[in-house]
Design a protein that fits this description.
Layout (H helix, E strand, L loop, with lengths): L16 H20 L2 H15 L3 H6 L5 H23 L14 H15 L3 H12 L4 H8 L3 H16 L2 H4 L7
Helix pairs in contact: 1-2, 1-4, 2-4, 6-8, 7-8
Protein backbone atom coordinates (compact mmCIF):
# COMPACT_ATOMS: atom_id res chain seq x y z
CA UNK A 1 0.00 0.00 0.00
CA UNK A 2 2.09 2.89 1.30
CA UNK A 3 5.87 2.83 1.25
CA UNK A 4 7.53 2.32 4.57
CA UNK A 5 8.42 5.64 6.12
CA UNK A 6 11.94 5.83 7.40
CA UNK A 7 12.24 8.43 10.10
CA UNK A 8 15.72 9.54 10.83
CA UNK A 9 15.67 11.49 14.00
CA UNK A 10 18.63 13.00 15.74
CA UNK A 11 20.13 10.34 17.89
CA UNK A 12 23.39 9.67 19.64
CA UNK A 13 24.80 8.41 16.35
CA UNK A 14 23.87 10.24 13.22
CA UNK A 15 23.54 8.12 10.09
CA UNK A 16 26.51 7.99 7.78
CA UNK A 17 26.09 9.42 4.32
CA UNK A 18 25.97 5.89 2.84
CA UNK A 19 23.30 4.79 5.34
CA UNK A 20 21.20 7.82 4.49
CA UNK A 21 21.45 7.21 0.73
CA UNK A 22 20.49 3.54 1.15
CA UNK A 23 17.52 4.42 3.37
CA UNK A 24 16.20 7.45 1.46
CA UNK A 25 17.49 7.06 -2.11
CA UNK A 26 14.22 5.65 -3.47
CA UNK A 27 12.17 8.48 -1.98
CA UNK A 28 14.57 11.10 -3.33
CA UNK A 29 14.37 9.51 -6.77
CA UNK A 30 10.57 9.53 -6.65
CA UNK A 31 10.58 13.23 -5.74
CA UNK A 32 13.05 13.99 -8.50
CA UNK A 33 10.95 12.06 -11.01
CA UNK A 34 7.90 14.07 -10.04
CA UNK A 35 9.91 17.25 -10.63
CA UNK A 36 11.47 16.28 -13.94
CA UNK A 37 9.00 13.80 -15.41
CA UNK A 38 11.92 11.80 -16.81
CA UNK A 39 13.72 8.89 -15.16
CA UNK A 40 17.22 9.76 -16.40
CA UNK A 41 16.91 13.41 -15.48
CA UNK A 42 15.56 12.37 -12.09
CA UNK A 43 18.62 10.18 -11.51
CA UNK A 44 20.87 13.06 -12.58
CA UNK A 45 19.08 15.40 -10.20
CA UNK A 46 19.43 13.03 -7.24
CA UNK A 47 23.08 12.35 -8.01
CA UNK A 48 23.81 16.05 -8.37
CA UNK A 49 22.03 16.88 -5.11
CA UNK A 50 23.80 14.10 -3.24
CA UNK A 51 27.10 15.20 -4.77
CA UNK A 52 26.52 18.71 -3.44
CA UNK A 53 25.43 17.40 -0.03
CA UNK A 54 28.22 14.89 0.61
CA UNK A 55 31.02 17.41 1.32
CA UNK A 56 28.82 19.05 4.00
CA UNK A 57 27.48 15.86 5.60
CA UNK A 58 29.46 16.20 8.86
CA UNK A 59 28.16 19.74 9.38
CA UNK A 60 24.59 18.64 8.59
CA UNK A 61 24.72 15.83 11.14
CA UNK A 62 26.29 18.06 13.81
CA UNK A 63 23.70 20.84 13.54
CA UNK A 64 21.31 18.78 15.58
CA UNK A 65 18.21 19.32 13.53
CA UNK A 66 18.09 15.70 12.37
CA UNK A 67 16.26 16.79 9.26
CA UNK A 68 18.57 15.33 6.68
CA UNK A 69 15.72 15.02 4.20
CA UNK A 70 14.94 18.72 4.41
CA UNK A 71 18.52 19.65 3.57
CA UNK A 72 18.88 17.22 0.68
CA UNK A 73 15.45 18.08 -0.74
CA UNK A 74 16.27 21.77 -0.55
CA UNK A 75 19.47 21.12 -2.52
CA UNK A 76 17.41 19.10 -5.01
CA UNK A 77 14.91 21.93 -5.41
CA UNK A 78 17.50 24.65 -5.87
CA UNK A 79 19.38 22.47 -8.37
CA UNK A 80 16.18 21.73 -10.28
CA UNK A 81 15.26 25.42 -10.38
CA UNK A 82 18.76 26.32 -11.58
CA UNK A 83 18.47 23.70 -14.34
CA UNK A 84 15.03 24.99 -15.30
CA UNK A 85 16.19 28.61 -15.48
CA UNK A 86 19.27 27.69 -17.49
CA UNK A 87 17.25 25.59 -19.95
CA UNK A 88 14.64 28.25 -20.55
CA UNK A 89 17.23 30.97 -21.07
CA UNK A 90 18.23 29.33 -24.35
CA UNK A 91 15.02 27.57 -25.36
CA UNK A 92 11.69 29.16 -26.03
CA UNK A 93 8.52 27.10 -25.98
CA UNK A 94 6.24 27.51 -28.97
CA UNK A 95 2.90 26.07 -29.89
CA UNK A 96 3.94 25.48 -33.49
CA UNK A 97 7.22 23.77 -34.32
CA UNK A 98 9.38 25.53 -36.89
CA UNK A 99 9.48 24.08 -40.37
CA UNK A 100 12.36 21.68 -40.91
CA UNK A 101 14.80 22.73 -43.59
CA UNK A 102 13.33 21.58 -46.85
CA UNK A 103 15.44 19.91 -49.46
CA UNK A 104 14.57 20.08 -53.09
CA UNK A 105 12.98 16.70 -53.77
CA UNK A 106 14.44 16.61 -57.28
CA UNK A 107 17.96 16.90 -55.86
CA UNK A 108 17.22 14.29 -53.21
CA UNK A 109 15.83 11.91 -55.83
CA UNK A 110 18.81 12.50 -58.12
CA UNK A 111 21.24 11.86 -55.27
CA UNK A 112 19.50 8.61 -54.36
CA UNK A 113 19.44 7.52 -58.02
CA UNK A 114 23.12 8.36 -58.47
CA UNK A 115 24.07 6.36 -55.39
CA UNK A 116 22.01 3.42 -56.65
CA UNK A 117 23.65 3.61 -60.10
CA UNK A 118 27.10 3.82 -58.49
CA UNK A 119 26.38 0.76 -56.36
CA UNK A 120 25.74 -1.24 -59.53
CA UNK A 121 29.16 -0.48 -61.00
CA UNK A 122 31.99 -2.99 -60.54
CA UNK A 123 34.20 -2.16 -57.55
CA UNK A 124 37.13 -0.91 -59.61
CA UNK A 125 35.00 1.46 -61.68
CA UNK A 126 33.20 2.71 -58.59
CA UNK A 127 36.51 3.38 -56.82
CA UNK A 128 37.83 5.33 -59.80
CA UNK A 129 34.65 7.43 -60.11
CA UNK A 130 34.56 8.21 -56.41
CA UNK A 131 38.22 9.17 -56.25
CA UNK A 132 38.21 11.16 -59.51
CA UNK A 133 34.92 13.00 -59.30
CA UNK A 134 33.83 13.03 -55.64
CA UNK A 135 37.25 13.46 -54.06
CA UNK A 136 38.54 15.50 -57.03
CA UNK A 137 41.82 13.63 -57.47
CA UNK A 138 43.94 13.55 -60.60
CA UNK A 139 44.36 10.39 -62.67
CA UNK A 140 47.91 10.04 -61.33
CA UNK A 141 46.72 10.34 -57.72
CA UNK A 142 43.97 7.77 -58.33
CA UNK A 143 46.48 5.40 -59.96
CA UNK A 144 48.81 5.78 -56.99
CA UNK A 145 45.99 5.24 -54.48
CA UNK A 146 44.68 2.15 -56.25
CA UNK A 147 48.11 0.79 -57.12
CA UNK A 148 47.49 0.60 -60.88
CA UNK A 149 48.59 2.41 -64.04
CA UNK A 150 47.19 5.71 -65.27
CA UNK A 151 45.96 3.84 -68.37
CA UNK A 152 43.92 1.50 -66.15
CA UNK A 153 42.40 4.52 -64.39
CA UNK A 154 41.46 6.08 -67.74
CA UNK A 155 39.91 2.82 -68.96
CA UNK A 156 37.95 2.25 -65.76
CA UNK A 157 36.79 5.87 -65.73
CA UNK A 158 35.60 5.73 -69.36
CA UNK A 159 33.71 2.48 -68.79
CA UNK A 160 32.11 3.77 -65.59
CA UNK A 161 30.99 7.05 -67.15
CA UNK A 162 29.53 5.16 -70.14
CA UNK A 163 27.64 2.87 -67.77
CA UNK A 164 26.33 5.84 -65.80
CA UNK A 165 25.25 7.65 -69.01
CA UNK A 166 23.24 4.62 -70.09
CA UNK A 167 21.97 3.74 -66.61
CA UNK A 168 18.22 3.14 -66.67
CA UNK A 169 18.03 4.52 -63.11
CA UNK A 170 19.55 7.86 -64.06
CA UNK A 171 17.51 7.94 -67.27
CA UNK A 172 14.36 7.53 -65.18
CA UNK A 173 13.39 4.33 -66.98
CA UNK A 174 13.72 1.99 -64.01
CA UNK A 175 11.12 2.23 -61.27
CA UNK A 176 12.33 3.43 -57.90
CA UNK A 177 11.96 1.33 -54.81
CA UNK A 178 10.39 3.56 -52.17
Amino acid sequence: MYPEVVVMERSASAPSFDEYVVARGGDLLRTAWLLTGDHQRAEDLVQTALGKTWPHWNRITQEGSGSYDAYVRRVMMTTYIAWWRRRWNSEYPTEVLPEPPSMDTDITDLRRDLLTALSRLPRGQRAVVVLRFFEDRTEAQVAETLGCSIGAVKTQSARALAALRHSPILAGEETRHE
